[in-house]
Specification:
single chain, about 140 residues, alpha+beta, five-stranded antiparallel sheet
Length: about 140
Amino acid sequence: MTSPTNTPTPTTFDLRFTSTPRGARLARRLAAHSLDSWGYGYDSPVSQNASLVVAELAANAVTHGAVPGRDALLRLVLLPAEERLRIEVSDTRGERLPTTEAPNDCAETGRGLLIVAALAETWGVAPRAGAPGKTVWAVLTRRLR
């Protein structure tokens, strides 16, 4: 017989959202709502940083990864024992990989993943499991409590 552990189990939130700016905005708002329901208030650093990361990854998914008629997917995984929050946004365009190449000084876009890299402990890209496309993920590990 195994003994129970006091290790908290991961908490997850999954959301399919339309590959539109409105869908990306909804993903950001519902991510903040989920974090609030998990005890990280809207004005907490965790919620604010996560909202920025979700906003950028979702915006990139609908701008660069959209395929008409195909939704994107947001997943939050809270790992309280490790004090980590993993944010994943999946789209259906696996051939269009993100880059952190700095844009020229006059460019109006192209700095979003630099923000993600600054806020996240680590981030990356992986093939989408069980479906065509890719998943861009980021892990926030700075003291969640």
